[in-house]
From TrEMBL:
It holds the Pfam family GT-B_Sucrose_synth. Belongs to the glycosyltransferase 1 family. Plant sucrose synthase subfamily. The gene is SUS. It comes from Xylia xylocarpa var. kerrii. One of its GO terms (molecular function) is sucrose synthase activity. Residues 1-30 form the Sucrose synthase first GT-B domain. This is sucrose synthase. Sucrose-cleaving enzyme that provides UDP-glucose and fructose for various metabolic pathways. InterPro entries: Sucrose_synth_GT-B1, Sucrose_synthase_pln/cyn.
Length: 146
């Protein structure tokens, strides 16, 4: 309910897939160099992806998800984690809560040494590309969590 079916349709709808976004999504998920759109890396592309996209605030609790993932060695051996939300640089935010969550996210990445298993993607605004991003995650046999 509430999702635009022309944008958010099942990954099995191959004839409707937006293949023009695949190279950009490939870079977004697997590019090796950190930039202003993504940080972190996924070393093992065979692993499914746990994926979440949300505002970077206490209520949405992306940092809680990252902390939970970081603590669970078995889960980390089985799947990668990709989160989409917020900025990487706290000075780019005007919201104190978001600034605190950005700092917390960086601390969790360091604390749990998530390099190779975790990708943080900055907030995305192109809903058509976002729809295809969900489907590309599904292609990995991954899951969306909220």
């Amino acid at each position: 309910p509430g999702a635009d079916q022309s944008v958010y349709f099942p990954y099995t709808g191959k004839d409707k897939r937006l293949a023009q976004f695949h190279p950009a999504i490939e870079e977004l998920l697997y590019g090796k160099v950190d930039n202003n759109e993504h940080i972190g890396s996924l070393s093992d592309r065979r692993k499914p992806i746990i994926f979440s996209m949300a505002r970077l605030d206490v209520v949405k609790n992306l940092t809680g998800l990252v902390g939970w993932y970081g603590k669970n060695k078995r889960l980390r051996s089985l799947v990668n984690l990709v989160v989409v939300g917020g900025f990487f640089d706290p000075s780019k935010s005007k919201d104190r809560e978001e600034m605190a969550e950005i700092k917390k996210m960086h601390a969790l990445i360091e604390k749990y040494q998530l390099k190779g298993q975790f990708r943080w993607i900055a907030a995305q605004t192109d809903r058509y590309r976002n729809g295809e991003l969900y489907r590309c995650i599904a292609d990995t046999k991954g899951a969306f969590v909220q």
